[in-house]
Amino acid sequence: MRALLATFSLALLTGTALAAPIPVVASFSILGDMVKQVGGDRVSVTTIVGANADTHVYEPKPQDAVVLGTAKAFFVNGLGFEGWFDRLVEATGFKGEVVTASAGVATHTMDEDGEKITDPHAWQSLTNGKLYVANIAKGLCAVDAEGCPSYESNAAAYSAQLGALDAEVKAAIAAVPETERKVITTHDAFGYFAEAYGVTFMAPEGVSTESEASAADVARLIDQVKAASVKALFVENMSDPRLVEQIAAETGAKLGGALYSDALSEPGEGAATYLDMFRHNIGLLAPALEGK
Amino acid sequence: MNLFDLFVGPFVSYGFMSRALVGAVVIALSAAPVGVFLMLRRMSLSGDAMAHAILPGAGVGFLIAGLEILPMTLGGFAAGLIVALLAGLVSRLTIQREDTSLAAFYLISLALGVMLVSLRGSSVDLMHVLFGTVLALNNDALIMIGTVATISLTALALIWRPLVAECLDPNFLRSVSGAGQPVHLIFLALVVLNLVGGFQALGTLLAVGLMMLPAAAARFWVQRLEALCLVAIGIGVASSYLGLLLSYHLSVPSGPAIILVAGAIYLLSLLIGNRGVIRTRLVPPRHRIA
After folding, report:
1. Do B247 and A214 touch (CB under 8 A)?
2. Fold that domain A2-168 belongs to in CATH
3. What does pTM read for this prediction?
4. Cβ contact, residue pair B136, A250, below 8 Å
5. Would you identify the CATH topology of the domain B3-279?
């Protein structure tokens, strides 16, 4: 009885002794999830670009400036992903720690509207994901030295999960014969995934979301799919889903579902955390590659 | 490239091309006679008006069932029907003429639609979901166009005589039969049917274009009503075929290509048709009666 009372009052005391969670801001949903995993209860994370939103074209709102004003650290992806964060930091006079999660990542270039730019989607490789986690832990330690041991242990546990998933993904891809690891998708965000896991992502030729497709474009795409004997077609951003169905029906390629590349989904949609997002994507990719 | 590859090859090698041809030809068959009547009744712009009038119906369908094709199409059809019928009734029962009443009702309908859609709060473009493209005709769309064409042609055949009488001399018809009003409303329903079905399968441009342009061009060649319908159908079919070929060989969007071919035929007819500019103005006219 007395022991119970003692533990109860001790719990109360430690409760009041605990500081309020440290406010930090993450630029987009995937990063926000990672910061939450590493920070745990010691941090309160606000994400600027939420689920299913496009970070490339995001325009900061006044509320974002307000949130940044009270934050101790701002976690960004870097590599040109958030074109707007420089101005936001400048405009708010943010004095806290800006942590670039992708520091130290081996980058490659990609083609964007005819220009060669650095591909910013580095989180699509789980090895890079571990690098992100390490950078996040370092950043949190710099802001809150007291919580450093907890951050490091959280980071280690999370990295272990990432490592396990990495092995799973590699095993799933290894089950597919090497000549069949081809996918057609309008997403240009899977460069690091392609590098890390040996899947070739091809872009559909000619069919864009901006203009109406011509018969020649559709014919070219069908030829491309047939020639490469690609079994998986993930082009859900095209203006007409029925056109994609037509192409799939004619080529025998299976129409994939929605791949998540630049943002997480809403909770309940199946890709609400970084790990879930990866599992969801590979869950769609692997059977599609095998032709199921 | 031999002639076969040029003119037949694309339709044989690609399933989507042959389906596009079938879809466009069926719509041409179904919509051209309706277009001829619209043209003769001076209601040629009603197709475009109808494209806007169906918005509240699609909006209600969207509010009830979300972004699903069938409820939105049915809602659009209902809205189009209501607008067309109200316009018809107003023109028959009051001093207002049909084109004005249609304009009034389609504007009311459009504004209602915009308001309904914005109430939902999302910025989803309903019309993009509702309107299709000729290159993306799946089995459901082909069946729908086929059904629309069957109903339309059958109904037109059944109401042909009273419809012609109603167009030509409504007072005479009223004195000998009570068929005038129902026939007129059935005709408006056929217009909406062809348009909404066409929009859903082929998009606005193609549906309205294949309805009006062939009819307009046919006017420069023949005079009798049956001949007008047949020539309009012929022009519609030819435009679809040539337009799809152009889209394939020159890599241009297919909908606009078909309509531009029809437009070219129209301009050509305007110039060199039997009743075109050259024959009627520049060649010394023989004594014509009509």
Report:
1. yes
2. Rossmann fold (3.40.50)
3. 0.71
4. no
5. ABC transporter involved in vitamin B12 uptake, BtuC (1.10.3470)
The strand pairing partners of A28, in sequence order, are: A49
Q: What does the pLDDT look like over B11-57, one tens digit per residue?
A: 888 888 999 999 999 999 999 999 999 998 888 888 888 888 887 88
**pLDDT recorded at residue B123:** 47
Q: What residues of A are in contact with residue B13 (Cβ under 8 Å)?
A: 219
| Rounded Cα–Cα distance for residues B44 and B50 (Å) | 11
Give the CATH superfamily of A177-290: Nitrogenase molybdenum iron protein domain (3.40.50.1980)
Contact flag B248-A212 (C-beta cutoff 8 Å): no
Q: Do domains A2-168 and A177-290 have the same CATH topology?
A: yes
What is the band of B62 on the pLDDT scale with cuts at 50, 70, 90?
A: confident
CA distance A246 to chain B (A): 6
Could you say which of B132, B244, B257 has the minimum Cβ distance to residue A242?
Answer: B132
How many percent of chain B have pLDDT more than 70?
A: 92
CB contact under 8 A, B16 and A218: yes
Strand, helix or coil at A27? strand
Q: List chain B domain ranges.
A: 3-279
**pLDDT digits over A234-268, tens only?**
765 445 667 777 888 888 887 777 788 888 888 88
Q: Please, are residues B53 and B83 in contact by the beta-carbon 8 Å criterion?
A: yes
Give me the count of residues in chain B. 290
Q: Is B254 touching A (CB cutoff 8 A)?
A: yes
CA dihedral A224, A230, A236, A237 (to 10 degrees): -40
Residues in B 96-135 with any Cβ partner in A closer than 8 A: 128, 132-133, 135
The nearest CA of chain B is from the CA of A216 a distance in Å of 4
The answer to ipTM > 0.85 is no
What whole-number distance in Å separates Cα of residue A125 and Cα of residue A234?
Answer: 19
Task: Let me know: does A85 contact A91? Beta carbons within 8 Å.
Answer: no
Secondary structure (DSSP) of A188-224: ---HHHHHHH--EEEPPSS--SSSPPBHHHHHHHHHH
CA distances for A13 relative to A7, A72, B259, angstroms = 10, 26, 79
Structure tokens at B6: 């040029």
Domain coordinates in residue numbering, chain A:
2-168, 177-290
The encoded tokens of residue A128 equal 């890079």
